[in-house]
Amino acid sequence: MALDRRGFLKASALAGGALGWQRVSGALDVAAHPAVPQPPAAPGKALRILILGGTGFIGPHQVEYALARGHQVTLFNRGKTNASLFPSVEKLVGDRNAPDGYAALKGRTWDVVIDNPAQLPRWVREAGAALRESTNRYVFVSTLSAFANRRAIGIREDGQLHEPGDPDATTVGNQYGPLKVRCEMEARAAFGDRALVVRPGLIVGPGDLTDRFSYWPVRIERGGEVLAPGTPDDPVAFIDARDMSEFMVRLCEQRASGVYNCVGPRPGLTMAGMVYGIQAVTSSDARYTWVDADFLLERKVRPYSELPVWMPPRGDSAGWARMDCSKAIAAGLTFRTLADTAQATLAYYHRQPPERQAALRAGLPPEREAEVLAAWHARPR
Predict the structure, then answer these.
(1) For each of the chain's 381 residues, which pLDDT tens digit applies?
(2) What sign does the dihedral 268-274-276-282 (CA atoms) show?
(3) CA triple 65-58-264, angle to 5 deg
(4) What span, in angstroms and rounded, lies between the C-alpha atoms of 41 and 67?
(5) How many CB atoms lie within 10 A of CB 349?
(6) In terms of DSSP bridges, do strands 203-204 and 258-262 run parallel, antiparallel, or are they unpaired?
(7) Please, which residues have CB within 8 angstroms of residue 296's CB and are 6 or more apart in sequence?
(8) How far apart (Å, rounded) are the C-alpha atoms in residues 24 and 27?
(9) Can you tell me the distance from the alpha carbon of 1 to that of 11, in angstroms, rounded to the nearest whole number?
(10) C-alpha to C-alpha distance for 358 and 355, rounded to whole angstroms
């Protein structure tokens, strides 16, 4: 099924605007998400925040926001990734894989510790041993992949989790979700009700090196016939790294604890809403051919990796993009517009070296996309 922009607008109008899109000045209104409200003012007392990591993907957004709100930030990492960032911020060097790797933290105290990169339970366990007496709150970045049953729609924080992974695992392999469950357990064991767990879904936006969302702005900007998976109404979900980072800092200000699902947007976004929203911030002539999920699976086109963001909304993945994050929204999670996320993602992509731009790490290569589209058009009708 091919659906161009005019066809999409007509279909949306006939459906009573079910997708929540409008025509504004001859173009699509990309505000599928509500505008980001002004966050509450930071409390009078500045927090002393230690960020484990802090120079990768989400860390820089946390640092910038925390500094803007008057907090004092210290970074702890190996000093190898983006070491030139934040020259005025205190940096402590240590290697969590080394004996006595936390030595640089001895004798120091912080109000909050944010642990961004930990995937192995040992890292969380050792962080607990080193920091449980040194902080009032420990924030662990987990994942929605911790949930074992994705068939259900609207899974809340108390949903069924995977059986915990090996507490002594040295590699992640295919145990990402189970190991994150074990990490959450280690965090609670060390910090009790001082532990705060944030479970994001797909994290996107400027700074992402996985291209699991970037593929779509880049591909749509290139134009032409675009293979769009499933149906226009298939749900999708992700969280802008800036929205997540800012929410985490505000949770720290609130002295929150417990677990928060962290995914958006609000209201729910569809594949059609996403691709047309992205296209609206470009001058692209892209047109979309919607290819049936079964046809894609028969040809071994992998959802979520070769066709990023998207998972067929049925069976074991029926609830994949329909998690419940009402608790986080009530606590202050806000969402940037899709336009903001798409524009910032494209700007970041275009700042990368040409060889990096030419080698996306997710999505269909052009020749593979053309092959699948040709097979779809040639199928018996």
Answers:
(1) 555 545 444 334 333 333 332 222 222 233 333 344 445 555 568 999 999 999 999 999 999 999 999 999 999 999 999 999 999 999 999 999 998 999 999 999 999 999 998 999 999 999 999 999 999 999 999 999 999 999 999 999 999 999 999 999 999 999 999 999 999 999 999 999 999 999 999 999 999 999 999 999 999 999 999 999 999 999 999 999 999 999 999 999 999 999 999 998 877 899 999 999 999 999 999 999 999 999 999 999 999 999 999 999 999 999 999 999 999 999 999 999 999 999 999 999 999 999 999 999 999 999 999 999 999 999 998
(2) positive
(3) 90
(4) 13
(5) 19
(6) unpaired
(7) 229, 230, 303, 307, 372
(8) 5
(9) 13
(10) 5
Residue found by looking up tokens 């915990």 in the block: 164
Question: Which pTM does this prediction carry?
Answer: 0.89
Beta strands in the chain (DSSP E): 2-3, 23-24, 27-28, 48-52, 72-77, 90-93, 110-115, 135-141, 195-200, 203-204, 225-229, 235-240, 258-262, 264-270, 287-291, 303-304, 307-308
Tell me the chain's radius of gyration from C-alpha atoms: 22
Integer angstrom CA distances of residue 197 from 139, 140, 141, 192, 219: 6, 5, 6, 11, 34
Pairing of strands 303-304, 307-308: parallel
Which residue do the tokens 């500045």 mark? 46
Residue 54 is which amino acid?
G
> Which residue is associated with the tokens 């059609």?
272
Instruction: Give SS3 for 188.
Output: helix
Rounded-to-integer distance, Cα 19 and Cα 9, Å? 10
Q: How far apart are CA 141 and CA 248, in angstroms?
A: 9
> What is the token pair recorded at 67?
């500094």
Tell whether omega for the bond before 265 is within 30 degrees of 0, i.e. cis: yes
